[in-house]
Specification:
Layout: H1 5-12, H2 17-28, E1 33-36, H3 43-53, E2 59-62, H4 69-81, E3 87-90, H5 94-100, H6 106-109, H7 111-128, E4 134-136, E5 153-155, E6 161-163, H8 171-181
Parallel strand pairs: 1-2, 1-4, 2-3, 4-6
Antiparallel strand pairs: 5-6
The structure holds iron/sulfur cluster.
């Protein structure tokens, strides 16, 4: 059955995060929904909500080969802590890596192409395989310009729904919920990393700086505007191959 975005938004548009997740996982997309998680600073919140509802829900982690060792340890820790039974580590195509990024330094010169190779394509391969009608994301409106208008349910032009249970949450909401649930924090948060991606493209932030100022900071002089999105949750065509020059 093809689900209608209008119907889903009408039914669930004002649902709180956990009831929305329950409805999506247990009813609307039963057996055909996955959580995409970066296992970054805020990720434990959604992972815990999903695990409470069904720890067998597929969780997709993009193992780019460029993560901090702390992130990889955190992934392993949360997998056991929450009893996740279907955590999938998606890796880049090794043949493409050999051809395009043999020295592993593509992030210095062609940052969009590196994200494409290590994140967008591995996820696309899974999503285009047809196993999932919907994916859950941790995107919040406050994070970036690109995200400022996202709804809690979207339909992308790849035909796959994005469910964003935390779309309207603030930074303060998230911190409060972490405390209320006693969630384990990513170890780098305490070291000044409020937003965490791949190691070469993430730096700690100074007091008073925006949380995401440490992400892709090296692209300030490379692009017209600092890179803000890796591209996995952009509508198809928004990061074109022509962008690979940077
Ligand atoms: S975040 Fe940096 S290292 Fe990671 S895939 Fe993107 S450009 Fe490459």
């Amino acid at each position: 059955m093809t689900l209608s975005l209008t119907r889903l938004q009408t039914y669930y548009g004002d649902y709180e995060a956990e009831p929305l997740l329950r409805a999506m996982i247990k009813e609307e997309f039963r057996g055909s929904i996955a959580l995409v998680s970066s296992f970054g600073a805020d990720s434990a919140l959604l992972v815990e909500m999903v695990a409470r509802i069904d720890p067998n829900t597929p969780i997709l982690f993009l193992e780019t080969g460029k993560h901090f060792k702390e992130t990889l340890e955190y992934v392993n820790y949360l997998e056991k802590h929450f009893g996740l039974t279907d955590l999938r580590r998606l890796v880049p195509d090794p043949e493409l890596l050999r051809k395009v990024d043999a020295d592993g330094e593509l992030w210095k010169t062609q940052v969009n192409r590196c994200c494409w190779l290590r994140k967008v394509e591995p996820l696309n391969l899974v999503l285009n395989g047809g196993a999932f009608e919907a994916v859950i994301t941790g995107r919040k409106r406050f994070q970036t310009q690109e995200r400022k208008d996202i709804d809690n349910i979207e339909l992308f032009n790849d035909g796959i729904f994005r469910v964003n249970p935390l779309a309207g949450w603030t930074k303060q909401d998230i911190h409060a919920e972490f405390d209320a649930r006693g969630l384990p924090q990513h170890p780098l948060v305490a070291k000044g990393y409020p937003s965490i991606g791949c190691e070469p493209c993430t730096r700690a932030v100074k007091p008073g700086e925006d949380d995401r100022s440490g992400r892709w900071a090296h692209t300030v002089d490379m692009l017209d505007a600092k890179k803000e999105e890796c591209g996995i949750h952009l509508q198809q065509g928004k990061v074109a191959q022509t962008d690979w020059n940077v």
